[in-house]
Write a structure and sequence with these properties.
A hairpin with a 2-residue loop joins strand 1 and strand 2. The protein contains five helices and three strands. The protein is elongated, with a radius of gyration of 27 Å. It has a three-stranded mixed beta sheet with strand order 1-2-3.
């Protein structure tokens, strides 16, 4: 059995498109202008975050020498550590790290620190 095509009486009229404003019609913008503004927003990087990575060892101090910053999103700094035991020790040093980061970059760049244990590169011994 084949379905018969829809008849016009079955079709529901669509509402007018929202992008059509009343009044004078707008001229389309060149795609390069639109994409340029989008790319500017996407590629904006806070220079302080770049400096944080570049100066990590000087700012963080000796106890963080085996840890490395791997991400900063919405003020939450993610720091990768080698092992769970290192994370346990460094957990007690997070307040000092945040104080050092706030002194260098201001309190708005890093509002929290999350420790993440690195994945092992090989298989675990049995």
């Amino acid at each position: 059995m084949t379905k018969s095509p829809r008849r016009r009486s079955d079709q529901v009229p669509l509402p007018p498109a929202k992008f059509l404003a009343r009044g004078e019609p707008r001229q389309p913008e060149p795609i390069s202008d639109v994409l340029g503004s989008v790319f500017e927003k996407v590629t904006q990087v806070d220079r302080r975050a770049v400096e944080l990575v570049e100066e990590w060892h000087e700012i963080a101090g000796r106890s963080w020498h085996e840890a490395r910053p791997i991400g900063l999103r919405n003020g939450m700094l993610t720091v990768e550590v080698a092992s769970g035991s290192a994370a346990s020790v460094l957990r007690f040093e997070v307040a000092d790290l945040q104080a050092a980061l706030s002194a260098r970059f201001g309190s708005d760049l890093v509002t929290g620190v999350r420790l993440r244990v690195a994945r092992s590169s090989g298989r675990e011994p049995l």
